[in-house]
Amino acid sequence: MFYQQLLFIENFIQLIRKCNQVILEIYSQDFNIIMKKNNSPLTIADQKVNEIIVSYIKKLSLDLELETNEIFTIISEESKNESFEKRKDATFAWLIDP
C-alpha cells in the first residue's frame, strides 16, 4: 500500500517537522485561545497547522488518485468538510485533528 512506501513515510515526517516548527514558534509568544461552539479550545497554531496539513493532503490525494484509481477524502476538525454525499464513495478518508 502507498502508506507503507518509504518516500510516503519520509514526506510525512517532513510534514510533521514543519508543523512542529509552526506550533513551537506560535507557542513561544503570547497567543489567544478561542472557544469553539462545543466549548473546546482553538488556537492560531491549530488553524495554521490544519491549513498546512490539509493543503499537503489535498495534493497528495490528487497524486494518489491518479496513481491508484482510489478515491480519497478529507475530514478535518478545523475545516469545512464536504457533504456526506460527496464523501460516501471514498476508498480512503484522511482524518485531521491538529
Major sheet strand order: 1-2
What is the overall number of helices? 3
Strand content: 15-25%
Number of DSSP strands?
A: 4
* Low-pLDDT sequence parts: none
Query: Mind describing the biggest β-sheet?
Result: 2 strands, antiparallel
Element order: H for helix, E for strand = HEEHEHE
Radius of gyration of CA atoms, rounded to a whole number:
15 Å
Cα(first) to Cα(last) distance is 24 Å
Helix-strand category? alpha+beta
Percent helix, as a range, is 40-55%
The best one-word shape is: flat
- Compute the average pLDDT: 93
Protein architecture, described:
This protein is an alpha+beta fold. The protein is built from 3 helices and 4 strands. Helix 1 runs antiparallel to helix 2. The protein is flat.
Describe the secondary-structure layout.
Layout: H1 6-27, E1 33-35, E2 41-43, H2 44-68, E3 72-76, H3 84-87, E4 92-96
Parallel strand pairs: 3-4
Antiparallel strand pairs: 1-2
Name a few traits of the molecule:
98 residues; flat; two-stranded antiparallel ribbon; alpha+beta
Summarize the entry for a quick read.
By secondary structure, this protein is α+β, with helices and mostly antiparallel strands. The protein has helices spanning 6-27, 44-68, 84-87; strands at residues 33-35, 41-43, 72-76, 92-96. Helix 1 packs antiparallel against helix 2.
